[in-house]
Amino acid sequence: MKKYLALLALSVSLVSAASAQQDPKAAKILDQMSAKYQAMKAFRANFTQTLENDATKVKENMSGDITVSGQKFRLKISGQEVINNGKTVWTYMKSENEVNISEAETDDQEISPSQIYTLYKKGYKYAYVQEAKEGGEAVDVIELTPEDRNNQIFKVRLKVGKVDKAVKSWQMFKKNGNRYTFKINKFVPNAPVDATTFNFDKAKYKGVKVIDLR
C-alpha cells in the first residue's frame, strides 16, 4: 500500500514558518498555494502518474482519481482503492476482491495524497527554481529538499500556476533512481463529499474478503 501512497500522489499532505534559510520568493508562492487548498472543503482530481528509472529503462504510466478533504482521502489507481478517514485505512484490491484494514500511520518518508499542499511546512527546505510553461500555462517551479538525509526521497519539484496558484504537476525523486511524475488532468474544487465518502461500505462489494490487520 505504501507504494501507491508514495506514488501519489503529488498527489497528493507543503511547513513551519519560513525561516531565514528558506527562499522568501518560494515561501510566498507556497503559502498562496496552500491557502487555496485549505480554503476548500474538499477537492477531486484526475491525474496521470509516470514512473521512470533511467538505469533500469523502466517507464510505466497509470491513471488515477482522488478525492481529498483535510487529512482524509479516497484514491483509485491501478485496480486498487485506498480509503483513509484519518484513523483507519482500507485498501481494496479489485482482482482479489479483498480489503485490508489497518490503522492510519504517519511515515515521515512517505507522502500521502493529503499532504501535497502542506508538505513544505515541516521537514523540507524549499527554493524557487524558475518560471516555465506547462500545457501553455505559465507556472512557477519550486524544489523541496528533505532535511532528513536518511529520507529515501531526495527532492520534490512542484509546478504551481502563476495565476491560479494551483498545483499543476509535481515530480518526486528517490535515491533508488525512481522518478515519479504526477500530472493533474482535471481538478474539481469543493467536490461534494458526505459521511460515506471516506469509509468502506462492505455492502457495496459483494463477497469481499476482509482482512483486519489492526
TrEMBL record:
Signal peptide limits: 1-20
SUPFAM superfamilies, sorted: Prokaryotic lipoproteins and lipoprotein localization factors (SSF89392)
Keywords: Lipoprotein, Signal
A Pfam family recorded for this sequence: LolA
InterPro entries, per database record: LolA/LolB/LppX, OM_lipoprot_carrier_LolA-like
Name this polypeptide is given: Outer membrane lipoprotein-sorting protein
Classification of source organism: Bacteria, Pseudomonadati, Bacteroidota, Cytophagia, Cytophagales
